[in-house]
TrEMBL record:
Pfam families assigned: adh_short_C2
Chain coiled-coil ranges: none
Domain of life where this protein originates: Bacteria
InterPro entries reported for this sequence: NAD(P)-bd_dom_sf, SDR_fam
Keywords: Oxidoreductase
PANTHER family attached to this UniProt entry: DEHYDROGENASES, SHORT CHAIN (PTHR24321), ESTRADIOL 17-BETA-DEHYDROGENASE 8-RELATED (PTHR24321:SF8)
Gene3D superfamilies from the UniProt entry: NAD(P)-binding Rossmann-like Domain (3.40.50.720)
Protein name, per record: Short-chain dehydrogenase
Example GO molecular function: oxidoreductase activity
Length: 246
């Protein structure tokens, strides 16, 4: 049983935080899950004891590696129903004018271009299902919706993810594929600043005045991955503790 019984999912950023909570939740809901992250061994340790989860190493900046991870999902499970793009980086904290070309390019390469590579590979496999179909969930950020105290390339890359989501949702709708975004507010993962003062400032942006747990964000991702969200496509759900209300 479970809300994803019989489904096959691939989750990037699956070794930590929101991605790992999603892998665990999907497996509990009956899915077979490929957890993809930079380091295969670290990913395998993270998902150990999670029945139905398989760890794969891939850098989402490398399109051949992304394609290979999806081929692995197809070889292992014969189909693909759900893809979640949670791999992401916050980037260097620096004054705008001190940001280097590489600082900007690398955040875009992971958060936006990496999401495109993964979406493209997911659509290829979902079109091969009979009948064709699937659900893609891209992790953006409340930083794409409102001013957020992070370096400029982070909200820029995450706003790009929302545009990519809407564009692809329109292009693949007739293939039975839905594409949506989740834009979390401050979430308790290794990405949240360790410095207590900065952390407090970020968390206090939401009227609930706390960080989300990774499991709370995985709950929203599960909804968008499952058939319960069958009439959602091209949309953004933002669990953000009341930071942005709309
Ligand atoms: P996290 O650091 O715990 O997890 C991110 C994972 O992505 C890590 O395991 C990391 O190894 C992986 N990753 C980074 N670069 C990669 C690459 N090139 N290829 C493959 N994997 C790569 O952080 P998290 O908070 O769980 O972040 C998950 C997503 O949620 C990110 O996209 C992040 O931007 C987004 N997000 C986080 C917050 C928050 O407050 N934590 C808020 C909004 C959005």
């Amino acid at each position: 049983g479970g809300r994803l019984a019989g489904k096959v999912a691939l989750v990037t950023g699956g070794a930590s935080g929101i991605g790992l909570a999603t892998v665990r939740r999907f497996a509990e809901e009956g899915a077979r899950v490929l957890a993809v992250d930079l380091d295969a061994e670290r990913t395998a340790r993270a998902v150990a004891g999670c029945e139905g989860a398989v760890a794969v190493g891939a850098d989402v900046r490398d399109s051949a590696a992304v394609d290979a991870a999806y081929e692995r999902a197809h070889a292992e499970f014969g189909r693909l129903d759900v893809a979640v793009n949670a791999a992401g980086v916050a980037g260097a904290q620096a004054d705008l004018c001190d940001l280097t070309d590489e600082d900007f390019a690398d955040v875009v390469a992971v958060n936006l271009t990496g999401t495109f590579y993964s979406v493209r590979a997911a659509v290829r496999l979902m079109r091969r299902n009979s009948p064709p179909g699937g659900s893609i969930v891209n992790v953006s950020s409340t930083g794409a919706l409102a001013d957020f105290p992070l370096p400029a390339m982070y909200p820029a890359s995450k706003a790009g993810v929302l545009g990519l989501t809407r564009a692809v949702a329109a292009l693949v709708a007739t293939d039975g594929i839905r594409v949506n975004s989740v834009a979390p507010g401050a979430t308790d993962t290794p990405m949240l600043p360790g410095d207590e003062r900065i952390r407090r400032a970020v968390v206090d942006l939401g009227v609930l005045r706390r960080a989300a747990s990774a499991e709370e964000i995985a709950h929203t991702i599960l909804f968008l991955a499952s058939e319960e969200s069958a009439f959602y496509t091209g949309q953004t759900l933002s669990p953000n503790g009341g930071y942005v209300m709309r």
